[in-house]
Amino acid sequence: MPLSYEEAVAQATGPGQMFELVPVTVNGATVKVFKSAPPNLREFYAFGRMHADKPFVIYEDERRTYAETMAAADAVAAALVEHFGIKKGDRVAVAMRNYPEWVIAFIAITSIGAISVSMNAWWTEDEMDYALEDSGATLLIADPERYERSVASAKRLGCRILVARADGPLPEAELWQDVVTPGKALPDVTIDPDDDATILYTSGTTGRPKGAVSTHRAIVNALMGYASRIGIEPLMREPDEITAPPENPGTILAVPLFHVTGCVPVMLGCLISGSKLVVMRKWDAEKALEMIERERITSFIGVPTQTIDMLQHPKFNDYDTSSLLQIGGGGAPPPPALMKQIDSDFKGGRPGFGYGMTETNSLGPGITGDDALAKPTSAGRIPACMEAEIRDPATFENLPVGERGEIWFKGPNLIRGYWNKPEATAETIVDGWLRTGDIGHLDEDGFIYVDDRLKDMVLRGGENIYCAEVEAAIYDHPAIHEAAVYGLPHERLGEEVAASIYLRDGESLTAEELQDFLRTKLAAFKVPTVIEIRTEPLPRNPAGKFLKRELRDSMAAASA
User: Fold this and answer.
1) In degrees rounded to 5, what are phi and psi of residue 480?
2) For residue range 477-516, what is the model confidence (pLDDT) as tens digits?
3) Nearest to residue 488, comparing CAs of 498, 480, 479, 478?
4) Which residues 6+ apart lie within 8 Å of 357 measured at CB?
5) Left (φ > 0), alpha (ψ -120 to 50) or beta: where does 331 sit?
6) What whole-number distance in Å separates Cα of residue 276 and Cα of residue 56?
7) Which of 102-116, 249-263, 270-284, 300-314 has the lowest mean pLDDT?
8) Once rounded to an integer, what is the mean pLDDT over residues 275-283?
9) Which candidate, 251, 118, 267, 298, places its Cα nearest to that of 197?
């Protein structure tokens, strides 16, 4: 007989079960952790070694098995220790596109107790410079394009560079093929669960990105949290509704590895199931459809716009997508109608979306299948290892079911804080609870709904863009007197970045000139696509703050 969600969670996570949860104190807060979770990522990678000759990383015409990938990671780990002198706790930055070497480097870095610093591949030289200095990285692993953007900064900071996929020698750098010796064994190292493992940079609320620091325990428990959902779901189904897991699972890497979604649930998640990871160099809807047919992909995880791109592609029906069992992802709220379209247009696939953050290692409420069709505006139920509360943003008091307030999360998957930013950490993590900055409510069935945003942020196609960061770059232009950045609705991306500006007396500036200026300071996706140059000061409230909602509504009406 099917169990309720609460009954299924209690059974799957009870004593002696695969997903048994036990209380542990982490940073002064008691959280529920998976008792059987590996203590660190080095031990977690044993899952990958078990899959041996199964295909793992597929990139264009390159195919690597799990055994080949893990052997390559061992060799890189040996080079890091023996050639570069990397020690436990050292920061190693990775700046490259979605290449197999990104996966190999990440496994190697975290296997020796070093901290992997994920650099956004779209960053400019200035952004690269900031993150290298802020993290204190002693080594940068890059592709040739990212090398060009960071070589001057690395030289200034005394950071060595290892370049992958270079055709010939490069000044101030060493080449992957010259340094990595195949067949080398993984060096011995002891890694504690609460040792730092990763730094992922998130857009900053005060003009510069913040380095979100995750421990080994946090990442492993996030991965176990995803796996527990697969163990819990059959307990809520009739026997004839339960389908066997796919024999040869596969997923497309359609999002960047430097994002938490690409790194944790997609890339690292493959190691549990033995799934093959088919890497896309850049997003192309028809290429994705072709990959799904050729590789018999079973799961597609991306931002909603990517699913929409596939469904709306004129050649969608020319490709066989029947292997897909789940289509979804996260990074932005999916349009409610998308749930129904996924269910009807993909022959065997069901919708599945989640609401996670860099600060939660992407784990958070999730909704799939019939629940997604019945409650298409909901983010879903909280995972077994997490807790959620809706609190008054001013008083921090817990609010009753149905009332809107700030969403707070607690769990072993949370970051421990922001690198070198104790004040930002204290503001975001309160008594072990993460303040999400999102406004939402719970319904009587325990489903979470995200209603609004407390943070001054634009969510563009899965990218979090903090308005303060863009405004800070705009103010660097000598012609600017006032600037306000905000989001405008966009049919495909969800939101696009817009700016209203007021110039200094006697200055002149066009929208195109400002965009050209900003492209030298910001990654392309952060540059406003809509710029309003006003002839009078921007509207403010009595406290002197810009009335962004008024500006947004005016711009939206003008473009309607």
Assistant:
1) -85, 130
2) 999 988 899 999 888 888 999 999 999 889 999 999 999 9
3) 498
4) 260, 364, 434, 436
5) left
6) 4
7) 300-314
8) 93
9) 118
Maximal C-alpha separation, the chain: 76
Residue type, 252: I
From 26-30, 313-317, 460-464, 535-539, the region with the lowest mean pLDDT: 460-464
* Amino acid residing at 424: A
Judge whether 250 and 92 are in contact, CB under 8 Å: no
pLDDT > 90: what percent of the chain?
A: 77
363, 364, 369, 374: CA torsion to nearest 10: -170
β-pair partners for 429: 434
Which residue bears the tokens 């003008």? Answer: 558
Which residue from 239, 295, 299 is spatially nearest to 266, judged by alpha carbons? 299
CA distances (Å), origin 59, targets 147, 223, 504: 21, 24, 51
CA distance 250 to 324: 9
**Alpha-carbon distances of 141 from 103, 117, 162, 175, 560, rounded to whole Å:** 12, 10, 5, 10, 46
Instruction: Classify 288 as helix, strand or coil.
Output: helix
Buried b / exposed e across 76-87, counting CB within 10 Å, b at 16+? bbbbbbebbebe
Q: Which two tokens stand for residue 505?
A: 């007396």
Structure tokens at 557: 């009406």
User: Which residue type sits at 553?
Assistant: D
- Give the separation between CA 236 and CA 1, rounded to whole angstroms: 8
Q: Which two tokens stand for residue 59?
A: 């990139």
Q: Which amino acid is at 448?
A: I
How many other CB atoms sit within 10 Å of the CB of residue 399? 16
- Structure tokens given for 165: 């996929």
Structural contact between residues 521 and 126, judged by C-beta atoms closer than 8 angstroms: yes
Half-sphere exposure of 334 (CA within 13 A, CB side): 34
Burial class (CB in 10 A: 0-12, 13-18, 19+), 554: middle
Q: How far apart are CA 112 and CA 216, in angstroms?
A: 12
Report pLDDT for 464: 80
Within its chain, how far is the Cα of 80 from the centroid? 26
